Amino acid sequence: MNKKQGKFFITFGLLLIAAALALFIYNRVQEKNAGEVSEKAAAQLKEVISSNAEAFEKYKTTDEINTQLFQEPEIAAENDAEKALTPSEYFVPDYQLNPEMDMPAVVLDGSRYIGILDIPSLWLSLPIMGDWSDRNLKLAPCRYSGTVYQDDLVISGHNYKTHFGRLNRISIGDRITFTDIDGNVFEFEVAEVEVLEATAIEDMISSEWQLTLFTCTYDGTTRFTVRCLRTE
CA 87, CA 182: separation in Å to the nearest integer? Predict the structure, then answer.
């Protein structure tokens, strides 16, 4: 090997190192930005959900009072303990009346969000976008398919540490909650974890599980998948 060839290989090696360093820095910046976007969106969503829940409670109270005011005394007296309706029976959530309904969403900074996912064991509280895309994944986890109302919700998240990058630390039995925009809370328990091939789409959206979370492994060839069952 002559001097020119030696210089070429040294220069080429340095360029490869520089490219790898630039990619590392770029990914860290993307991860930081994603964390900031998610944190901001989660805070805003919690305010929206709290406001919706308060409005719903006022509606329930008003409707209950009106029901009592307009109910004839004779009818009220005839209602025994078994036939009397409790407030919870008066107010059936929309999703129970129509499980096939689309999940309500709120638009924040041009993006649609359908709720908040909480994983206490990983100290995560993440906003969930309603529409899956490469662009959206860089901002927050996204609904990949299904709905929480039909017990087949699948959520995809980037492997950023601020998103789903720590899913591989989750344990069987860990609790997870999903809160929709209307304030309905759905509780789940981790039942199984598995690694699926990137092409195993049908297995990923299997209706056997009521909630599925997944993210790319770091080499990008497979998907780390968390399967959950409702605990309610």
Answer: 18
